[in-house]
Amino acid sequence: MTTHPAQLINGEWAAGLGSEFKSVNPANNEVIWSANSATAEQVDAAVKAARQAFYAWGDLDLAERLTIVQRFAQELKENSEELAVAIAKETGKPLWETRTEVGAMVGKIAISEKAYHERTGTVENPMPVGRAVIRHKAHGVVAVFGPYNFPGHLPNGHIVPALLAGNTVIFKPSELTPYVAELTLKLWQKAGLPAGVINLVQGEVETGKALASHKGIDGLFFTGSSRTGHLLHEQYAGQPGKILALEMGGNNPLIVKDASDTKAVVHDIIQSAFISSGQRCTCARKLFLPVGAQGDEILEHLIRATKAIKVGNFDDSEQPFMGSMISERAAAGMVAAQQQLQELGGESLLELTHTANTGFVTPGIIECTNVTNFPDEEHFGPLLKVFRYSDFDAAIEKANDTSFGLSAGLLGDNEADYEHFLRRIRAGIVNWNRPITGASSAAPFGGIGASGNHRASAYYAADYCAYPVASVELEKVTLPGTLSPGLNID
Ligand SMILES: NC(=O)c1ccc[n+]([C@@H]2O[C@H](COP(=O)([O-])OP(=O)(O)OC[C@H]3O[C@@H](n4cnc5c(N)ncnc54)[C@H](O)[C@@H]3O)[C@@H](O)[C@H]2O)c1
Ligand SMILES: O=CCC[C@H](NC(=O)CCC(=O)O)C(=O)O
């Protein structure tokens, strides 16, 4: 058992009492962090600490809570390079990208403050007698579950609005990125967050299960795979009193039609499909190209440019576009996905290859037009499936032929085509002539179908962090001028 104090419970760092787990740099399998997971008893202690801290935290004025949250933004800025390096080491993502991730964490604070007022502010209206007031109140104790691909930014997108609203939090990060979680929580402490307001429970699935099933939480905000999200949804069935926000995966389509600038099209496809080594929920998985000369030219150019993508270490002085995937296992999973598609009739136009004993893969492109029984699965890596089409409506129909509905895009010069696409396509993020990755924190972010449960995050996260309270108020109990028929109060 290690003695690494990886759990933050009621303001105290403590060693986990469960099984040991490790975090590795996926580029070279070097162990960079190890500790023991939190047991169910430790999770229980964290929930109790959060409950105990709830009234005092919620009783603070918004301005007081905001001061602490803004100090956290300052801590993030002052420690941005250390955090960016930690994210890069733990996930394999290149530094240029992880610096952007830390920047998004800082940016989240001002955006969440604005959203708090705009989405959940207080509205007061005079009435013939007294006034009507709409306010919003925190749910209480909420659990936040984070994914590995943005271990800083995405949990932060739940935590910041939850704290601003007055909730207290138990954070369960991905077991693949515990080091980033630990560093982030240390910054919250340095910012002066009172003990118990955020608690950190680290560990593998058992720790997650203990937290998700704990009777003492009022809500659960989850970002992760559709598989886990569905399990949680089933687990929360019959508990209407608990707020569940699920941000899950996608199987996202990108259609090209009548776009004159081939280079720009290829750029937007690559930026959509291969950024973060394809490990973004919004990444394009299916590319629809028209049959004919224009589609042929785009495809040829795309293959050439994809072959030229630089894959490398997070800290290479000449920065790569793609780093390592999160793990050797994830990389092997992409090889298996490619093989499955080949067996179903897919033709590799550019083979995805895996460097043994590492998380490195090269990006792949596979033509799937003639694949029957195309699997509606999110392959969370850099493998783009190409479909050729001759009818725009048929392409849109095929793009919609998925249980997911996160992001979608059209690359094309004709606005009427975009308006048609916008009316037909089923997704929560729909872009025109822009990559479908890189969504803004200043807009709602969420999907339909298997991608989410209609609790959009980012700018709309404020909505699931508080519930509305409607009041009619009068400063003194007063007898009405006219009584209801049949009443005699004398
Ligand atoms: N829609 C979005 O906003 C969004 C953003 C980023 C990633 N994602 C999705 O996340 C996935 C990648 O992340 P991941 O692999 O870390 O997700 P994951 O579902 O494996 O894990 C997410 C979290 O849930 C925990 N967990 C796993 N099984 C659990 C269980 N049975 N009970 C309780 N907790 C459990 C994990 O420990 C982790 O903290 C992809 O599918 C991606 O599309 C979605
Ligand atoms: O992997 C999933 C997230 C991808 C990312 N989305 C956001 O950052 C949404 C904005 C926010 O949560 O503030 C993307 O679209 O690239």
UniProtKB/TrEMBL annotation:
Enzymatic class: oxidoreductase
Q: Which residue ranges does the record assign to the Aldehyde dehydrogenase domain?
A: 16-463
Species source reads Pseudoalteromonas byunsanensis
EC number(s) on file: 1.2.1.71
Binding-site residues, NAD(+) = G224, S225, S226, R227, T228, G229
The UniProt keywords, alphabetically, are: Arginine metabolism, NAD, Oxidoreductase
Positions of the catalytic residues: E247, C281
Which NCBIfam families has this protein been placed in? arg_catab_astD, PRK09457.1
Question: Known catalysed reaction(s)?
Answer: N-succinyl-L-glutamate 5-semialdehyde + NAD(+) + H2O = N-succinyl-L-glutamate + NADH + 2 H(+)
Q: Can you name this protein?
A: N-succinylglutamate 5-semialdehyde dehydrogenase
